[in-house]
């Protein structure tokens, strides 16, 4: 075994920082969901038991809080022009429990129909939909953003069909 190979393996098996220092370091840059932080620590080479202790330590000091993280994700998603469905999907991808997601959305004071209208106006202005092709383009955009069909129809004031 060469010196180069042993250095590569050494870095993977024994991280330089303690697991608590690494966890606090990640959380000092930005908030994380518990699952996300756990995965980052695991990828850095820490063991499961150490990770559990670090997670508990961060939660004890309220540095790691999935409810707070979900609130931040919701606020950021709304600012990005995302709809309810897209924000929920992003939360699930980050590993936030479905109970927390439901709790956040139940307490939300967002009018998703008006938010859809605001996003549509910001993207397309007040111009009328002239063709079925234009209608399909706009609806696809809004669906990608995470709005359901009723919200999209409300945003474009669409009662008629082409």
UniProtKB/TrEMBL annotation:
InterPro entries xref list: RecX_HTH_1st, RecX_HTH_2nd, RecX_HTH_3rd, Regulatory_RecX, WH-like_DNA-bd_sf
Composition skew (Polar residues), residue ranges: 1-13
Any GO BP annotation: regulation of DNA repair
Keywords tagged on the record: Cytoplasm
Residue ranges of domain RecX third three-helical in the record: 109-155
GO cellular component: cytoplasm
Entry superkingdom: Bacteria
UniProt-listed Pfam families: RecX_HTH1 (PF21982), RecX_HTH2 (PF02631), RecX_HTH3 (PF21981)
Domain RecX first three-helical: start-end pairs: 20-58
Family statement drawn from the similarity comment of this UniProt entry: Belongs to the RecX family.
HAMAP family with a match to the protein in the record: RecX
Descriptive protein name: Regulatory protein RecX
Organism of derivation: Photobacterium sanguinicancri
Gene designation per UniProt: recX
